[in-house]
Design brief:
The structure holds two protein chains of two kinds. By secondary structure, chain A is mostly beta strands. Chain A is built from no helices and eleven strands. The chains are: A mainly beta, B mainly beta.
Chain lengths: 116, 109
């Protein structure tokens, strides 16, 4: 149980384009989903927290107009990187939490984004 | 002071060794504690939750010391496959998880 999928697993896009990443909880209802970014050899950085049906809460320094998060259902959250730049190239990981069974998070496999 | 601190290591140990990591946290109101394992270029995977009474899962033992505000992870009889980065995660009153930067473990033959 507690499987989280993420799609796509990797993507290459050109500067100025937008990229959408999907995060799905496959066998549980995710009341809360988290989006992280991780640069090589660095720790996970929390970007935002999203609760189903409400607006995401962004961490300080993360532009909400650039990183659009939608959590429309209990099993799906999406992150859209708008007008991508090369410095947005990173490993984006989502995690999901089933609030009814504790505070453990289960992570998706991540999406490696390269902006050229 | 960072909210969650870990020694980044690396801890370099031979197979069969016992190794322990500590993680300190600054928020005394923290409620939930976890150890995750992350392999290179992969997502973190939950290793174990940490309970006040301590818990053990095979070769892995986790302890929580609320008075001194730290959690620990003990790995016995280390295997080559234990080589990874071990992340400490603390959840406070806001239920937002805070990650440590991880401790790197290298187990060599």
């Amino acid at each position: 149980g507690a499987v989280v999928s993420q799609h796509p697993s990797w993507v290459i896009c050109k500067s100025g384009t937008s990229v959408k990443i999907e995060c799905r909880s496959l066998d549980f209802q995710a009341t809360t989903m988290f989006w992280y970014r991780q640069f090589p050899k660095q720790s996970l950085m929390l970007m935002a927290t999203s609760n189903e049906g409400s607006k995401a809460t962004y961490e300080q320094g993360v532009e909400k107009d650039k990183f659009l998060i939608n959590h429309a259902s209990l099993t799906l959250s999406t992150l859209t990187v708008t007008s991508a730049h090369p410095e947005d190239s990173s490993f984006y990981i989502c995690s999901a939490r089933d609030g009814s069974s504790g505070y453990e998070q289960y992570f998706g496999p991540g999406t490696r984004l390269t902006v050229t | 002071r960072k909210e969650v601190e870990q020694d980044p290591g690396p801890f370099n140990v031979p197979e069969g060794a016992t190794v322990a990591f500590n993680c300190t946290y600054s928020n005394s109101a923290s409620q939930s504690f976890f150890w995750y394992r992350q392999d290179c270029r992969k997502e973190p995977k939950l290793l174990m939750s940490v309970y006040s009474s301590g818990n053990e899962d095979g070769r892995f033992t986790a302890q929580l010391n609320r008075a001194s505000q730290y959690i620990s992870l003990l790995i016995r009889d280390s295997k080559l496959s234990d080589s990874a980065t071990y992340l400490c995660v603390v959840t406070g009153g806001s239920y937002i998880p805070t990650f440590g930067r991880g401790t790197s473990l290298i187990v060599h033959p």
